[in-house]
Amino acid sequence: MAVAGASGPVMGREDVDLALERLGAEHEAVETSLLALQDHSGRRLLEGAELTGVTKERWERTDTAITAMWAHFDAYTGALHAARELRARRRWPTQTELARLTELLRGEGVTVLGATVPDHERSLTGPARASEQLSLGELVRRMTAWYDQAMETVAAADAVWSALPARIDLLAAETQRVRSLARSVGVRPGEHPCGDELESLVEELTELRARSVSDPLAFWNPLPAPGRPDTGRYDDAGRRLEEIRREVEAVLHVRDDAEHRLGRLRDVMSRADRTLTEARAARVEVLSKILASDVPAVSGPASALHEQLAAAEEFARTAQWHRLSPLLDGLEGHADDELLRARESLTAVTAPLAVRAELRGRLDAYRAKVARLGLAEDPVLIERYDQARRLLWSAPCDLGAAERAVRRYQQAVSDLGSTPSGSADRGSA
């Protein structure tokens, strides 16, 4: 019968070896997660940003938790290293050594400085302690809770920063375009209600963008899980701009139908030119990030259409309406076709980036499935996941090889997940 100690029955040699193997895999998984958190774009942005409001408060707590998490991980690493060294002394450890190994692996044999515990984790009435004695299981429990807290914070901030500021910039640029158009037909502040509304909208978008950058968590809806950015104010501003746009267009119709049609032509062709410019820039990005030879070339703007538009504006300026009308009839259709061609070109050029994003999402989804199945420590899955991730996050990315690697990972997950005995064995390891 095994001798009982403070940590329960003393472990046998085989039990110690199995525990060390399991804890080694657990240590590697924890380290991988911590490094991923360290490299998370949201964490880096939070660390360097000038934060305010809810985000500042939550990041201060989260940053403290991350520091504590690394301190606990160092303690975990030290305890595991000490146990490995003790086990390696001899093939058949003495009873004293087995008792010490039992204390390290199962008992509260890990010392953690009290200063490394965040304030909100400490007892309300308990005295401050210089250090604590914890088990490896308690260390992992604490680190898991802090990791979940940190990931929730950085992922939420990253999601808001990815969704809101760029969209607000686009809406602000569109607002400026509408304001310029409005002023060209006499819709100005103090002279027309839409002019005052436009100025108010410009100020609101400026304030909204500044706050979304400094306090992104103020724009995060945690429910329903897993949460999403709150675009309520942005959507309201978009609706306000659309209402203003209709008012301005009504003025344009009143002033002159021909001028309205010319304004629409300018807008469509300008959007086509901007879209082609964006497609050319996107093509350069795709060629640098994706290993591909079939990225289509992007043509320049249609110079013939611009020449016809210049002719139409000259006809309007000189009141040659009988010549302007038939020219506009054909030019409007060609301009719409040009914009459609530009959008199709942009879609075709950015397709490889969309494929890469889909593969990354699929890989993350299957990794979450692996965690639910309790197979996160399976060496085959770890190796195949790492291979697929390296391919997807390398530049230039070989999409063909990355897709094959993701499929191999999926197949391995399906094979292991459909084997009840395999899942049970891993769950009891």
Brief digest:
By secondary structure, this protein is mostly helical. Among the domains are: 135 residues; 60 residues, no CATH class.
Report on the structure:
- The chain is mainly alpha-helical and 429 residues long.
- Among the domains are: 4-120 and 131-148; 361-420, no CATH class.
- It is built from 13 helices and 6 strands.
- It has helices spanning 13-39, 41-48, 53-87, 95-105, 136-184, 193-214, 232-255, 257-289, 303-317, 321-373, 379-392, 399-417, 420-428; strands at 4-5, 8-9, 110-113, 131-134, 220-221, 228-229.
- It has a two-stranded antiparallel sheet with strand order 1-2.
- A hairpin with a 6-residue loop joins strand 5 (220-221) and strand 6 (228-229).
- Helix 3 packs antiparallel against helix 4 and helix 10 packs parallel to helix 12.
- The radius of gyration is 31 Å and the shape is elongated.
- The two termini are 23 Å apart.
- The model is unreliable at 1-5, 122-128 and 421-429 (pLDDT under 50).
What key attributes describe this structure?
429 residues, two-stranded antiparallel ribbon, disordered N terminus, two-stranded antiparallel sheet, elongated, mainly alpha, single chain
Give the topology, please:
Blueprint: E1 4-5, E2 8-9, H1 13-39, H2 41-48, H3 53-87, H4 95-105, E3 110-113, E4 131-134, H5 136-184, H6 193-214, E5 220-221, E6 228-229, H7 232-255, H8 257-289, H9 303-317, H10 321-373, H11 379-392, H12 399-417, H13 420-428
Helix pairs in contact: 1-3, 1-4, 1-5, 2-5, 3-4, 3-5, 5-6, 5-7, 6-7, 7-8, 8-9, 8-10, 9-10, 10-11, 10-12, 11-12
